[in-house]
Specification:
The chain is an alpha+beta fold and 241 residues long. The protein has four helices and eleven strands. Strands 1, 2, 3, 4, 5, 6, 7, 8, 9, 10 and 11 form an eleven-stranded antiparallel sheet that branches. A hairpin with a 5-residue loop joins strand 10 and strand 11 (227-235).
C-alpha cells in the first residue's frame, strides 16, 4: 500500500472543528496522485500519451472525522483492472492506527484526443501493484434518485472548480452538491456517480431530494438538463470527539 502522513489543517475544518468531508476526499485524491507521480505514471506521463484517468464513482465511509492538528496516515492501493477500468481502495488512520475513513473508487482510462476508452499501458500494469480488495460493504456504482426533485440555484463554473485537465474536479462536484443541501449535518457515507465532464463557464444546477434512511440525493444537471453528477449523502449523528 502506498501511504503518506499529514496533519489536519485549520483550513480543512468545518464549523465544528473537524475535517470536512470534501477535505477528506481531497486527501484520498492527493494520495493516489502522489503514488502515480512517484511511480512515474503521473500527469506528465499521461499527457505525453494523450491519456487521462477519469473518476467514475466514489464511495466514502467516515467512522470519525479527525480534529485540528491530528496526525493522520492516508493510504491507497489498486485492486483490479478490467479493460479500461481501474478499481482502487483508500483509507485514513489516526496516530494510533485506528481506521478513521475508507473508500472505494472506480476509474476509467480515456484517450484525450478521441474521448474513447484506452487500455492501461504495460508500465501501468507493471508498476500499479494490485493488492487484495478491502473488506467493506460495497454499494452499487449506480445511484438511484426520485423523479420529483427540488431545483436549487445555478452555479457557474469558475477557474477554482477546475483541475489540470480543465474539467470540474470531482471534489468540486461534491462541494457544489453539499452547498445545494445547505449543510449543517455530518455525513456518514458519501456516494458520487460521475456522468459528464463540465468545463469553465458552464452552469451546474442542483436538484435535491430526501430519500429513505436519512439519505439525501443531489443531481447536478447542466443548462441542457443533462445529468453531470449524482451525489448521495447518508447522514450520521454528531461527530465524535
Amino acid at each position: 500500500m502506498y501511504s503518506y502522513q499529514s496533519r489536519i489543517r485549520y483550513s480543512e475544518l468545518d464549523e465544528t472543528g473537524h475535517l470536512r468531508l470534501e477535505s477528506l476526499l481531497d486527501y484520498f485524491q492527493d494520495c493516489s496522485t502522489f503514488q502515480s507521480e512517484d511511480l512515474g505514471l503521473g500527469v506528465e506521463y499521461l499527457k505525453e500519451l494523450h491519456m487521462v484517468w477519469v473518476m467514475s464513482s466514489w464511495q466514502i465511509v467516515a467512522e470519525r472525522y479527525p480534529k485540528l492538528g491530528e496526525t493522520v496516515t492516508v493510504g491507497t492501493f489498486p485492486y483490479e483492472f478490467k479493460g479500461f477500468v481501474g478499481y482502487r481502495n483508500f483509507l485514513m488512520r489516526d496516530s494510533g492506527g485506528k481506521l478513521l475513513a475508507y473508500a472505494n473508487t472506480v476509474w476509467s482510462l480515456l484517450d484525450t484526443r478521441t474521448g474513447k476508452p484506452a487500455k492501461p499501458t504495460p508500465q501501468m500494469l507493471e508498476k500499479y501493484v494490485l493488492e487484495p480488495k478491502m473488506e467493506m460493504d460495497y454499494a452499487p456504482r449506480k445511484i438511484r434518485f426520485p423523479e420529483e426533485l427540488t431545483k436549487g440555484e445555478p452555479v457557474v463554473v469558475r477557474e477554482h472548480h477546475l483541475d489540470v485537465n480543465h474539467h470540474v474536479n470531482n471534489g468540486q462536484f461534491v462541494r457544489i452538491a453539499m452547498e445545494g443541501l445547505g449543510g449543517g449535518f455530518k455525513i456518514r457515507q458519501l456516494r458520487a456517480e460521475y456522468k459528464k465532464q463540465v468545463v469553465l463557464g458552464e452552469v451546474l444546477i442542483p436538484y435535491t431530494a430526501s430519500v429513505e434512511d436519512g439519505k439525501s440525493v443531489v443531481v447536478l444537471r447542466d443548462a441542457e438538463d443533462a445529468v453531470c453528477c449524482v451525489v448521495e449523502l447518508c447522514r450520521a449523528g454528531e461527530a465524535k470527539a
